[in-house]
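Record type: monomer structure entry
Structure origin: computed from sequence
Chain ID: A
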Amino acid sequence: MYQIQEMQEKAVLVGLNEGELKELQLLIETAGAKTILKMTYHDRKIDPAYYIGSGKVKEIKEAAETVAANLIVFDNELSPVQQRNLEDKIEIKVIDRAQVILDIFARHAHSRESKIQVELAQLEYRLPRLQGRGIEMSRLAGGIGTRGPGETKLEVDRRRIEKKIYRLKENLKEIKASREVQRSSRQDPIAALVGYTNAGKSTLMNKLTGAGSHTADKLFATLDSTMRQLQLPVGQNIILSDTVGFINKLPHQLIASFRTTLEEVENADIILHLIDASNSEIDASNSEMEKNMRIVNKEINELVDPSCKIIKVFNKIDLIEQSKLNDLKIIYPDSLFISALKEINIDTVINKLNEIISNEMIEMELDLPYSEAKWIEKIHNTAKVYEEKYQKNNIYLKVLIPKKIASKLKKYRRES
């Protein structure tokens, strides 16, 4: 059997400035295409027909023909009308940033949940773009934007897509209900790893817990959330949750679809905001690092309770000069500075978690009746046991225990 190899697409990128196109190029490369030309346009009123002016459309068409490109990628999301008009005018495939990100997610979805989430996002993106395109969709006969779950060469009508969207949403409701059951049975506090894509969350998770999560130096290397238990020196177990990375202009369909995954962030007791320090520059306020931090901070503020403890963790410090590291330490004095890959200062993350959890624990002495011996395993799993004696009428325990559990055991507290 012969395997047909898909030809690499050659893309012209279109955006407002070179800075925005830098990240779009990384996305395009992650999706498997090659950037052969970048073009910028002036910040002006958006054209309802083409997004950009008709003169710029003509310029893009001529440039694409000159470099033999077969793909035009806009950094901003295009409306269905704008996308159709641009393709008719330029006469090659036109896609936008949202479509590129959806394609990458389709490549990297492995679990049942993430596949459902990506398929739902793809269908919700494609549905308004079916009108007037014809069922053959000849210009979308391969390449970025056509891969992934739900791909049926788009020979489906609106009604079938709507029915599929409904079924996928019902499946996600079932997954959400299952998550809530699991969450209600959890007693250990949760620390969620949050950050811009490729900040090193999975690498840190692996170093702290030996989770074995896939890691790669690319955008959206992992989509599936991972949860692992970590025992702190204080004796308390904590659950680390690795979540999908954020990115600028993340398609709203993906945010909606990944809501069940992001609920782990909403329910976290501690947020570890992982930051790629290697993106820092001399003028820190305008660096890629700062821009990425603002994007993640915005999402965190929308997701978590204001009382949630948020710790900034600057990663990849092995890739920056000592002077830059010193500057970051002055600007962000309450933050942690590590290299997860090189295992530099990893212990500071554990120590910080230990400090936060310790502040939520109290020392107490218990005289536990043998009829309540079921608490023993729970105490050993969640507390630091200093002393344990099996006496004639009860079990004596001296422990450092979470305040939440202590409140349930206060009637067995030994009076001093």
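Annotation 1: Residues 5 and 143 are 11 Å apart (CA to CA).
Annotation 2: Residues 360-412 form one domain.
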